[in-house]
Amino acid sequence: MTEQTKLSVLCSLFTWTQRSKSAAKKRAKFRKFLDAFCTDHNFFPAVRLLLPNLDRERGSYGLKESVLATSLIDALGISRDSPDALRLLNWRKGGAATGPTAGNFALVASEVLQRRQGTASGGLTIRELNELLDRLASAENRAEKILVLSTLIQKTNAQEMKWIIMIILKDLKLGISEKSIFHEFHPDAEDLFNVTCDLKLVCEKLRDRNQRHKRQDIEVGKAVRPQLAKRVANATEAWKKGDPLAPLLFNIVVEGLTGLMRTAISKNMFSSYQVGSQKEDVNILQYADDTLFFGAVTTDNVRVLKSILRCFEMVSGLKINYAKSHCGCIGKSEGWCRDAAQFLNYSQLDIPFSYLGIPVGTSSKSWSVWQPIIRKFEAKLAKWKQRCLSMGGRITLINSGLTALPIYLLSFFRIPKKVVHKIVSIQRNFLWGGGIEANKIPWVNWDTVCLPKNKGGLGIKDLIKFNEALLGKWGWELVNNQNQLWARILLSKYGGWNALLFGRNSGDLSHWWKDLETVFQQQDSNSINNNLRWKVGNGVKIRFWKDKWRDDDLTLQDKYPTLYQMSTQQNSPINLMGHFVEDRWDWKINWRRNFFDHQIDMVAAFMAEIDDVHIHRSSMDILTWRDDPSGSYSTKSVYNLLKDAGNIVTEDSASKIIWNLKIPPRAIAFSWRLFQNRLPTKANLRRRMSAMSCSLAPKLGVYDHCLCNFLFCISVHLLHGKDVVVECKFDGDRIQIHKNGTEIHFFSRQVRMNFIDHSEYAHAMSEIIIQNVLVDRCILDGEMLVWDTSLKPKAARDGLDSDRQWLDVAFDILYFGDTSLIHQTLKERHEILCKIVRPVKGRLEILVPNAGINSHISSGEPCWSFIAHNVDEVERFFKETIENRDEGIVLKDHSSKWEPSDRSGKWLKLKPEYIQAGSDLDVLIIGGYYGSGRRGGEVAQFLVGLAERPSPNTHPKQFISFCRVGTGLSDDELDAVVTKLKPYFRKYEYPKKRPPSFYQVTNHSKERPDVWVDSPEKSIILSITSDIRTIESEVFSAPYSLRFPRIDRVRYDKAWYECLDVQSFIELVHSSNGTTQRDTEYGSKQDSKPKRSKSSTRGEKKNLSIVPSHLIQTDVSSIKGGSLIFSNMMFCILKNLVSYYLIKLSDEVFEEMSNAREVLLAKANSPFNYMKAGS
């Protein structure tokens, strides 16, 4: 029945799933579809359409968006110059032609097809669709593909064709993960797919959802999802302790305790405690593993409570911790309370007491409530005062640690002014003196210190304003959660939200409630109450005249005072100001008298203003916060509002620039004091009549945060007694080699297709594997690299020539003989790997500690992998990888088992780009590329360029394309850049028009932008960073480009002509051995330890520069001068000579030159075609 199901049914499922916001409802809908339409248990035809990226039974279509666009144009038989054809070809570009669907090819194609297809479904079934897609994938030429597309267009409508196109592109964008689909299909589906990568096998083996499948092991010849390494820079605690079911079981048991209490109350055996005028019942509350009972102070209640607790212990098997249990009574004698506690076997609770850090039964104004906070402040500072923190460090500590200490009290009580003064005094002394000692000079007024950073302050929180913002949250929650128990209690005791907002309170009020009223009933323009707005629902809560429920900031009372005085309903809510006539709301406003003629226009304007309001019978009135886009109350937005009240200080551009600089905090603090003119200069010291003294300078050196995180994670492993294997991370293809006799497969993981068999390796590597892997059946996990026999490096594959050959480095084994090894430890797998693989130098190597490829290394030289015994060894090894331009390092738990598709932290990786070891390069935006998806129709990436070095005292006139970059900025930052440049974007109509004359480009298809910036003077500089290793550029005009570039920040502070010039970039590359590495502690001169000689393979690798060999200058340091026969002569040594003879000839020339130098000269026609010359 599955194959006979209509495609329209599947498309309806896709559409509903895409629109639904609930993940649970999406999963339920998918389950319902399988149950209804897959009654024959033939799931594969439908599931392969739901997960097209995992279907390996059908080959590649060879149709990406650009090719699919031209194929659809031909299938429709329309001209390439027609508007619809141009929409398909320019699907990424926005504007009137493409419309709001720009960036989504399937939607653009659907709109084009809608004009040519009927709205009725063509009746295509799932079986027929799969047959047509099989024909499309197997089509040998373009004409056959167009024929299949024509058939699909004839048998479908535009909506169905949209989903077919998304299936062809293997990206359905349903908003439901493959993990969720697998789980709904069968609980064991994901696990089986991970070890087989075979969707058809999963659908055939797991036909019955109710029958569990025994976990299948891996098999030779079936691709396995690889175990993945987790990025260490973002790692959290890797190992979780305890039984994961324990919290769930506890919750179930405690529900039983609640049930016992409800039964006792329903049978009038237990009397609840009643609060306030409305007698709100409170009996049992639960927080985490605490249970609180409330009841009337009677002997019967005490007896019933003991019976409930004994029953709970017997039924659940849990024991109550009586040592931590307390009983307190109000309104009874101390003797009665003592007897009750003794009867329950509890200790007596003395009032006042503290629960969860909040004092109960005492005044919040009492100094004893806040004294623990003061002590915490002082204890925190005592740890730091002797450590000579820089001012930048003290600012960071105040902003993060000190202000956070009293947060739980600040969110509940109004802080007394004497406590504020004490805390500010501690903060001030710590900021200016590094401790809590007295007589510190406060160089800047504290009000200025508390200003935002962009207004000249340090951004330290104003405790009073912050306290008010936190307290305001209670009022907000009270209005929007009226049905919750705590809100009902406040309603019964104090009058609830009405009393809080409008002051309708009476009787004896607690200090806490008075504090809330004080915060909410302030009447200035920046108060909390004046920035609340009502969203009208049924109108029950909103006062028609006195509340703010219109779009402006005035109430109707303030806007129409005359009409308000004439109204007889001055305090009435909206729902009493009219009634429903069927489903339409009709206003019924009562006036004291008729209106005069001159008042008719005012009444008409008034009625026109309220007529467009929609009253809803079923929805509730909602209180919203004006200063937040979502309408929700946020402490941050309220604090900013209160802080700006009465503050006339404008934004300080200099301060904004200072805080955006990527410099150490101590440097920022120094710059801030400099701009404030508050440095301890002689003049400033004299002005304060202070004795001049010299303080100890802080110790230099800022350790990179990401590296510290990394080393901390390593420490976690080492401290837990685990052996850690540290390996060099090679820059090649991750390959699983499956050997089954003479049958060899080379599987790799791809972005969309999770598996692909690389037949291109078979010719060069199969025979090597057959002869040197000493078992008939096995699976090896490793990296496929290129071995250059002339220089002997290992590098990523760029194509092969006569001097290069494939090299596989195996670092793990997953299968051996007829046995899976994934349940064995890494140590055991390494031992087996060494036994069954016979290394072949330059063709097949194994990467294990103390063996394999490490055996080629002489004593005292750096190795490729080792077992780390301390953090220093790992740090040293990582520095070596940066110096050698390796991709990074990987750490593996030596006792870990191999888990498919696992990224739990058993393997950790660190690359140079994670710690931003590369230089920040200032480049100019010269073009842009339209995005797709939510960035469709807008520029989402930039083509950036380097300047051609200008003559002295002039600006650059030429800019050379350098790289393409789009990541690193937030959506708001990207929108800001695009908005500034949009007036200067000019569409690039290739090949009709040429690029602007001041841009040097290659016009490579990967370089060609969608828009140009029409003039460099209008552009913006970006600071970009990347992997420290550069690459030779074929796509861009610059001789080198970047790997994985990303935007670090936008340099609005720099003029367009201050961007990096190409000559300076080349000098940076040459001076750092083909990288963009900045001067850091990695490989810097600060390391006093002598570097180990590296004459082995690894050492020769270090000498391999990414700079082309014809640009590497000859090392003549060991050559002695001979004669002067070549003085005043120039020699050009051409690059097409064999490397050995080139070096030999260079040496001979330099021998005969007394004053020789080697330079790089440019040809006249192009500044980037270099040749070697000696003079």
From TrEMBL:
Q: Does the keyword Secreted apply?
A: no
Q: Name one GO molecular function term.
A: DNA ligase (ATP) activity
Query: Which residues lie in Basic and acidic residues bias regions?
Result: 1078-1090
Which biological processes are named by the entry's GO terms? Answer: DNA recombination; double-strand break repair via nonhomologous end joining; nucleotide-excision repair, DNA gap filling
Residue numbers spanned by region Disordered: 1075-1101
The cross-references to InterPro entries, in alphabetical order and at most eight, read: Adenylation_DNA_ligase_IV, DNA_ligase_ATP-dep_C, DNA_ligase_ATP-dep_cent, DNA_ligase_ATP-dep_CS, DNA_ligase_ATP-dep_N, DNA_ligase_N_sf, LIG4, NA-bd_OB-fold
**Ranges for domain ATP-dependent DNA ligase family profile:** 810-948
Recorded hits in SUPFAM superfamilies, A to Z, give: ATP-dependent DNA ligase DNA-binding domain, DNA ligase/mRNA capping enzyme, catalytic domain, Nucleic acid-binding proteins
Q: Pfam families per the record?
A: DNA_ligase_A_C, DNA_ligase_A_M, DNA_ligase_A_N, RVT_1, zf-RVT
Looking at the keywords, is RNA-binding present? no
> Which keywords does this chain's UniProt record carry?
ATP-binding, DNA damage, DNA repair, Ligase, Magnesium, Metal-binding, Nucleotide-binding, Nucleus
A GO cellular component annotated for this chain's UniProt record is: DNA ligase IV complex
UniProt lists the family membership as follows:
Belongs to the ATP-dependent DNA ligase family.
* UniProt name for this protein: DNA ligase 4 isoform F
| Biological source species | Glycine soja (Wild soybean)
